Amino acid sequence: MRHSHNRLVTVSAPVVVALLLIIAPAVICGAQVKEASFLIEEIRFEGLHLVSERIVLAESLLKAGSTYSETELQHAVRRIRRLPSVLTVDFRLDRGTERGRYRLIVSVEETRRFFFGFGLGGSEVNYFHDEDPNVPSVPGFDDEVCIAHDCYSADDFSFASVGIRQPIGSTGVLWGAAQARSSIDDLTAFELGYTQYDLLGSGAFASGRVAISNDGDQWWYTLEAGIPIGGNHSLRLLIDGFERDRPWYYGSVDSQEIWSELSDHRLDLGLEWRIDSRDDPLFPTAGRLLSAGLRFRDRESEAPKNSELGTSLPIEKDTLGSETLFANLSGAWFRPLNRRSSLSWGGEVRFGKSDAQGRFWNGSRWTWDDPIDYVADTALAGFYIGYLRTVWRPTASRNLSDLRWETTLGGRYGQARFDTGLPSTYWDEASLTTSLVLRNRWGVFRFSLQGRVSDGGLR
Length: 459
Hints:
The protein is mostly beta strands. The protein has two domains: 13-26 and 112-183 and 279-458, no CATH class; 35-110, Ubiquitin-like (UB roll) (Roll), CATH 3.10.20. 9% of the residues lie in helices and 59% in strands. The protein is built from four helices and 19 strands. The strands form two sheets. Strands 5-6-7-8-9-10-11-12-13-14-15-16-17-18-19 form a 15-stranded mixed beta barrel. The chain starts with 12 loop residues before the first helix and ends with a strand.
């Protein structure tokens, strides 16, 4: 593949807005008030059945004999609550054996060993793209910026899942699940995963999962490791990929459409620095989630040659691919308004450089016979503001369900510039999503409605 001179992607207004939403809250909330500290001589846990005490203690990063402020204890409890098998966590301080010493009592409510999920929703989408932008479709770049020929959306969707978690020893958890999804295409998949906590007694974890579709045409894999570097700060290492076979339209011969299979391969390698102080992994009402990282993506699309298709289509090139390096910065902030409602906002910016081979649409078919090698500089910016309200929560028992209403207004903008004299492309979108979500110890059940307006084309 050819390389070109480095060129900067123009910093646009959406990028500036997203950066302000990430950075400004950190500057405004930078001042810290000095707090009283407590010497914790003993840590006890109540309500543990499925999760081991060692896993919970490792996630808290607390140690008996150390001194902590009330905020540090609250953040430790939040880290415990972000475990997949934990629903709620509370803590209290009891007097210790001597004056100035305390016992920390942590009460945990777990989810069930079996878990379920269900979702149902609909969307209304309006596109205002140029009809024929005549720009390349880049494997790996289609994921980041929607180009007219590759934009699609479903009017409605549904998904369902059922699974089980099984502890392995004192620091391992094995899980399996079956999932079904109905959207643009129907998909049923089976997933198996394992997580090892408290690696080498450091509070680090490693997790892996593999999933395969019921027809065997698609499978995914993920390996992730998290290393705490103090408080709510951690480093994340990620390996993620998929293999997929899907139908592809090549064009027509004598007014007859020619379809065949396209094989996609993708491998991602990522490194991320993260600050996470959210009080809930699904419905945060306080805290923040900040991340900055790099990701390398290698993607390849393989298609049969004309001899394999049995047609006279002049398809001589059977493989296209791209290598992309992304730099990403994102932030989300959550603030309670009262006991039942909260506000959230956030933004994301991402810059990438792709060394790729692309295909073009000439009006009747994709030009696989004459692909172009080129470099693409890409930029993506997004921002959102959300509102969450607890509609109903039982007071007699936390074992029952709680019902929440969440609404999010968001916007995204993407652009690409090429080194071959091609016009740059852009894509922007505004969306409004509202959902009712029911959560209990068995799982999460969601009903959503979404409206989106999207525009794109050439510049």
